[in-house]
Amino acid sequence: MHDVVIIGAGPAGLSAGVYCARKMLNTLVVSANVGGQATWSWEVENYLGYQLITGVELVERFREHLDNFSVELREGRKVTSLVQRADGFAIATDKDGALEARAVIVASGKVPRLLGVPGEDTYRGRGVAYCSTCDGPLFRGKKVAVIGGGNAALDAALQLNQIAEKIYLIVIEECLGGDEIRRNQVLAADKIEVHTSTRVTAIRGERFVQAIDIEREEKPGSFEVSGVFIEIGSVPSTDFLPPDIELNELGEIVIDSNNRTSFPGVFAAGDATNVIEKQIIIAAGEGAKAALSAYAWLVDNGCLAASY
């Protein structure tokens, strides 16, 4: 029986792990990967202490910090269910039996939103990608398309501007969204061609992606590309949660100011929650808060001897 099981190893989960360890809690972190969406960030300029660092490098710093403590980390696991028991909770994964915990911190983050057009499933991993940081180098010197108009899409286009021959930025809205600085950088980039009020209708190819079909002002067209980066947002990874845990209309976990969910003993932090801003530094802070709240709950419920 663990004192705390943390679901997710992004900035929120790793931060929660450090704070649980500092409270001498028997802690297990279980996650599909380490870093979550933070590893997709090409350049991080707003994390305190670093004027400029890549998401991958920042996550490595987080992991090194966690490694200084006696926290077990199990990677490559998808959590499939969370069930309450008389003495705590049981967490099932696709690779483990029931993992037992007195308290749970959900920091499961989000997963990419699918475009939902013909060819997306067929060419996933064969030209269709959801992470320009991870897969961008595979398309060096090639023509690619980025789908989306927010900060994620702008970041992807700017990253690929250093790698690809040409980038078609396909935006369904009438104008670009995202931050003004990023918009100006995209519009000033010679290799990025912006197409607003444009919708992708299909992704085509043979063994690999060869083209996308588009529709603009009800006129069909196409672009020859080798890669398609889908950057249209993400959805909370909360499908494993029991119905007793309240979610909002976006599927995010509803928490209070102390990261408590609607279910006693279950806490949540990071992008899976209804906290308005989704930023690395905010997720890390929320993870710390969740850990401290979980510790206080364990003490209040007689699971631990208070040790302030």
CATH superfamily of the largest domain: FAD/NAD(P)-binding domain
Cα-based radius of gyration, to the nearest Å: 21 Å
How would you describe the shape? elongated
CATH class (first level) name of the largest domain: Alpha Beta
Q: Give me the secondary-structure category.
A: alpha/beta
State the helix count.
6
The CATH architecture of the largest domain comes to 3-Layer(bba) Sandwich
**Would you tell me which CATH topology of the largest domain applies?**
FAD/NAD(P)-binding domain
- Low-pLDDT windows of residues: none
Largest sheet: 7 strands, mixed
Descriptors:
five-stranded parallel sheet, alpha/beta, FAD/NAD(P)-binding domain, 308 residues, 17 strands
What is this structure, in a nutshell?
The protein is an alpha/beta fold. The chain contains six helices and 17 strands. The chain has two domains: 177 residues, FAD/NAD(P)-binding domain; 103 residues, 3-Layer(bba) Sandwich (FAD/NAD(P)-binding domain).
Written account of the structure:
The structure is a single chain. This protein is of the alpha/beta class. It has two domains: 2-111 and 234-300, FAD/NAD(P)-binding domain (3-Layer(bba) Sandwich), CATH 3.50.50.60; 128-230, FAD/NAD(P)-binding domain (3-Layer(bba) Sandwich), CATH 3.50.50. Helices cover 22% and strands 28% of the residues. The strands form four sheets. Strands 1, 2, 3, 4, 5, 6 and 17 form a seven-stranded mixed beta sheet that branches. Helix 1 (11-22) links the parallel strand 1 and strand 2. Helix 1 (11-22) packs parallel to helix 2, helix 1 (11-22) packs parallel to helix 6 and helix 4 packs parallel to helix 5. The mean pLDDT is 93.
